[in-house]
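Supplementary Methods S3. Input chains for the assembly prediction are listed below.
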Amino acid sequence: MANYLITGGAGFIGGNFCHYMVNTYPEDRFVCLDALTYAGNLETLEPIKDKPNFRFVHANICDREAVFSLFEEEKFDYVVNFAAESHVDRSIENPRIFLETNILGTQTLMDACRKFGIKRYHQVSTDEVYGDLPLDRPDLFFTEETPIRTSSPYSASKASADLLVLAYHRTFSLPITISRCSNNYGPYQFPEKLIPLVIKRAVAEEPIPVYGNGANVRDWLHVYDHCTAIDLILRKGKDGEIYNIGGHNERNNLEVVGRILKELHKPESLITFVRDRAGHDLRYAMDPTKIMKELGWQPKYTFETGIGPTIEWNLTHSDWLSHILSGEYLRFMDANYKR
Ligand code: NAD
Ligand code: DAU
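Predicted structure tokens for the full assembly:
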């Protein structure tokens, strides 16, 4: 029996990972630690909250005392760190909390790993640490060797954390792995991110804000495939290694918005071009050859097979959505789109 700590498990990807692991490995134990920020929602964990191999702990990864005492009590084998401030637009509005959670929180977790011992610390990182690619060079992709070149306070904080994780490996021999994934979509995604935001607004027949000219490209991966990739890295990945995760599903933002409108039988006239995001990355595109060849990972979904069920999920979970649309959500949406 292995004991896992999953941080940020009340959020979008961490929540999906908790569901996946708790159901796939009933003989193992999973402790989810989450600070329940605006992006964390206990309702996401409702389907697994009473499983005997699951425990939820409300705490902040920057709280050294709480983290150390949980490590002492639980004696974890594996730590998977999803906890982060994750929205680029919020990092432009207020960078500070991104540095605290994403960098210092990572340090606190790794210090606990050093003190109490673990088999593996896994850092969930992002393709955004590589910066962006030009739109007119479709032959270029991010590999694990692509230099770090960040654009936003969010990506700078994630890259800083990655460097710290590699330093703890080199200096203290901490057994670590890092995964860098492309844009995720799927169930339980907070509707500040493009896909759930577009679905929500299209259903309500509200204007859909497209930044700049809508030509920016993202490489979309269903969250289920991100979960299976991390599981594989934990089991088969090599200490000290970085693995890129992506499924070659590049779409520009207008294509994504157009596809959702079509599925929902809503008019393209809802599309509203708004002021561009500051420092807006042009194109992300992952080369996942390493994880495919070395670990045998294959995604289950393409964008075409994943987007329909995602729209359906959002349509059938209006309760989940309405409960998270709190005062904080409304304040941010108002400030961001008024700019
Ligand atoms: P999210 O914003 O939906 O969830 C983040 C979770 O972390 C929330 O439950 C929140 O309450 C929790 N959290 C925030 N600060 C915390 C703190 N100080 N202590 C404990 N918990 C805290 O984010 P997400 O989209 O699920 O992303 C999860 C991870 O995956 C992040 O590290 C992100 O950088 C990375 N990532 C995301 C994507 C994507 O497309 N969303 C792609 C690649 C990598
Ligand atoms: O690539 C991985 C990253 O993907 C993760 O590390 C981040 O945590 C995650 O938030 C995501 O970052 P993006 O900035 O790419 O995702 P977002 O959904 O915010 O935006 C996707 C694209 O859509 C981007 O080009 C900006 C654009 N956009 C976004 C919003 C919210 C719009 O045009 N209008 C919008 O209202």
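The longest helix spans residues 96-116. The domain at 3-187+221-248+282-301 is CATH 3.40.50.720 (Rossmann fold).
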